[in-house]
Specification:
The chain is an alpha/beta fold and 352 residues long. It is built from 11 helices and 8 strands. An 8-stranded mixed sheet has the order 1-2-4-3-5-6-7-8, sandwiched between helices. 50% of the residues are buried.
């Protein structure tokens, strides 16, 4: 099978865990929103560029689902939106992605399926500690996030309203709605149905379950029109069987418990559950003081365009720019050149 630029880009962005370049910030005994204290908690991150003398050029880039701190490498280049010659970029890894504290790398009693529930706010609070304790920064220029990274970006604006000047949320929402919860449950169920999963106490990765999860996921990442127009050929894939196999192989590079734990975090996301808002996501969004660039994908089947347009209405200083793409949710990751160029241009203009 031939491999195009897109296939190479996807794998180079996400599959670098075995030979990684990240640093580790020790959070010690980190208290989670659930009340559980996670012992010896760790936050993985990388940096690009230099922090200036005024310490006002830091941009935080949190990771997404099925991703790590390489997710925005396509924009972290001279002349691009996240120019390391202008900005100090800090790219962090979410809990549970295998680099920061996760089911796969945590000792008993929180190993494997015993890992505690993580909320988006837990990731944001860990990032706040990194930025303030390691880099001694009192205000950051921006938070830029895609998908679950966008969930974190919006949460930054509510949890630390005076700390963040600008927020860029790409193909992600501030609330996980019922349909999304059901979709994620289907993915989780596919993995758990494998008899070798053993309630998360497996000795080898449950390959059948992971493959089933990948097959499930392959129908959601892109739009229906993307399939109909055979745009998968731009990834070097010849037919839908190869699309399914591609996603199966991708999911197989992950630990099953990590994937399920991250999916639970995703399912439970609701910015309205921030302390003080009593579950009211509209009031929470209305409290954001930062300038917000809200960039949904027009054809996203994870985060539906109607729901995201609705959220944008409650953000005081919002600039809604819809990515005009048939690449569905994946458009937000900039795999197609047209999408990458659109996202890059919008962020550059927004930072001006």
């Amino acid at each position: 099978m031939k491999k195009s630029f897109f296939t190479i880009l996807i794998f180079s962005s996400f599959l670098l865990f075995a030979h990684d370049d990240s640093e580790i910030f020790n959070l010690d005994n980190f208290k989670l929103e659930s009340g559980v204290t996670l012992p010896n908690a760790k936050l993985s991150y990388v940096t690009h560029g230099k922090l200036n003398e005024r310490k006002d050029n830091l941009i935080l880039v949190p990771s997404a689902y099925l991703g790590d701190h390489h997710g925005f490498d396509y924009l972290i280049k001279p002349g691009k939106a996240l120019d390391p010659e202008k900005y100090f970029i800090v790219a962090t890894d979410m809990f549970q992605n295998g680099l920061s504290s996760s089911p796969s790398n945590t000792e008993s009693p929180y190993n494997g399926p015993n890992f505690p529930l993580i909320n988006i706010r837990d990731n944001v609070n860990a990032g706040y500690r990194l930025i303030t304790e390691v880099f001694k920064v009192k205000k950051i220029k921006a938070v830029v996030g895609f998908s679950m990274g966008a969930q974190q970006a919006f949460q930054w604006g509510v949890s630390y309203p005076k700390f963040t000047q600008k927020i860029v949320g790409i193909a992600g929402s501030a609330v996980e709605y019922p349909h999304g919860k059901v979709r994620l449950e289907g993915f989780i169920s596919a993995i758990e149905a494998d008899s070798s999963f053993k309630n998360g106490n497996y000795t080898t990765q449950p390959e059948k379950g992971l493959r089933a999860g990948g097959a499930h996921w392959s129908s959601w990442g892109w739009s229906q029109e993307w399939f109909r127009k055979e745009l998968y050929k731009e990834m070097g894939l010849e037919n839908i069987d190869e699309v399914i196999n591609w996603f199966e192989e991708f999911v197989l590079t992950w630990d099953a418990n990590n994937l399920i734990a991250l999916a639970r975090t995703w399912q439970n996301n609701n910015i309205g559950n921030t302390p003080g808002f009593k579950g009211d996501y509209k009031k929470a969004l209305g409290s954001i003081k930062a300038d917000v660039l809200y960039m949904p994908s027009e054809t996203d089947m994870y985060f539906h365009i109607d729901a995201l347009k609705n959220e944008a209405k409650f953000i005081p200083k919002v600039n809604l720019k819809i990515i005009p793409s048939l690449w569905g949710h994946i458009a937000g990751a900039g795999f197609a050149k047209e999408d990458a160029d659109f996202i890059n241009k919008q962020i550059i203009e927004f930072f001006k």
